[in-house]
Amino acid sequence: MKYLSLILSVLLLACVLCACTSGGREEAVQNTSEETAVQETDLEDETVSKGSGKILVAYFSASGNTKAVAEKTAETVGADIFEIVPSVPYTDSDLNYGDDNSRTTVEQNDDTARPEISGTVENMEDYDTVFIGYPIWWGQAPKIMYTFLESYDFNGKTIIPFCTSGSSPIGSSAENMQSLTTGASWLEGQRFSAGASSEEVSGWVNSLGLK
Ligand SMILES: Cc1cc2nc3c(=O)[nH]c(=O)nc-3n(C[C@H](O)[C@H](O)[C@H](O)COP(=O)(O)O)c2cc1C
User: Which of 35 and 110 is assigned the larger pLDDT?
Assistant: First the structure.
């Protein structure tokens, strides 16, 4: 009788242990599938936040040199193009860098200058990559580029700067604009001479390996 009750107790204990173990396994399986679901959702979100992979070339050009480079860039990579047009156009006397009182000299010396832009980019959120093109003015980007960068949310986008100039390098011009955007990845910029050839421009664009 003693033996029988001992055997029954052992069997009962074995059943209880078995039930606990299999319950634990189920929970682990459930956790694993929940984790997988979360990971898949994260991946979906990431795909969504990456946008549609579209590329925009946005440029400002006062006398046409940067416009030519921008057009070749857009053509090479199959991008949309947006011209940054000042609400008040720059006249020849505005562009006179020999005059200490010309509009451009005054603007470039004023950290707070933000010349107004006429028109806006439609659906900026659709673009993953934005080229920004500008002429070098006094070693820097024209202040209207600052207006442009402060007008949109560039979070998660890649920004690729390029410029044209008489002889100055791109220097610190792109670097000085980076603080105007948050969460954007800036690639190294490229400077072109006023009469840059199509091959020079397309060679640079192709070297970036964009799709
Ligand atoms: C106000 C002003 C300032 C300029 N400053 C410089 C300069 O610092 N260094 C330089 O190499 N070229 C300078 N340039 C020449 C322009 O960068 C060059 O002509 C450029 O290609 C013009 O581009 P755009 O035709 O697209 O306006 C300046 C031109 C202007 C109008």
Answer: 110
